[in-house]
Amino acid sequence: MLDVMCGRFAVDRDLDELAAIYGATPVDQVHWEPSWNLKPTQSIPVILESAAGEAEVVRRAAIARWSLTPIWSKTLATRFSTFNARIESVTEKASFKSSVKSRRAIVPAAGYYEWTTKAGIKQPHYIHLPEGEPLALAGLYSWWADPAAAKDTDTRWHLTVTMLTCDAVQTIADVHDREPVPLPADLWDDWLNPQVEGDQEFLGEAVQASLPIAARLIHHQVAPLKGDGSHLIEPTRT
């Protein structure tokens, strides 16, 4: 079963800034504005490595649809939720297992939101690292070809992505029992490298490497998420 969590997150940098952080090349003629209220199926920035018809593999900062569509799907929208996937069992899922091998991505984030419920009222919390330190969240990507589009059109191919989740660390377990997997910088190269074949053991090692970062996560209550803007992550009085 897929785990539904981390349904909103924030990215406070543009594509050029993200490319500089990850040593990537921005995709040509793509404009993307920072957002503090990103939702599933919206366009989000991702970091990936692929040849994309070129002679060499290149690290790119690209824009993807947040909800992975496997290449064999007949439609872009899938029957089941695919914006998150449990890292412990993702290799068992038909939608994701081929991406684990060689189509892994980083989803850059400033932080993400989870909700608690008290007396029937849902309260959003913003989860992030101290001092505005960015998060590099583990993801998987897939290219989906629209069968209704002509083969020589630019709109035929859609880049889609999912976030991987694992058990939450103690510091945020009171908000949610799951969390995205924050990758340390020394793992970025292997994680993105399509020549490093991924399997369940590799994913487990990524979770272990993520624990020191996850242990530093902090959170605070925020107002209900309406609209967009940096004001959404400001703490509310409790």
UniProtKB/TrEMBL annotation:
GO function terms (MF aspect): lyase activity; peptidase activity; single-stranded DNA binding
Keywords: Covalent protein-DNA linkage, DNA damage, DNA-binding, Hydrolase, Lyase, Protease
Hydrolase as UniProt keyword: yes
Enzyme class: hydrolase
EC code: 3.4.-.-
InterPro entries: SRAP, SRAP-like
GO biological process, one term: proteolysis
Family under the similarity heading: Belongs to the SOS response-associated peptidase family.
Protein name as it appears in the record: Abasic site processing protein
Organism expressing this protein natively: Rarobacter faecitabidus
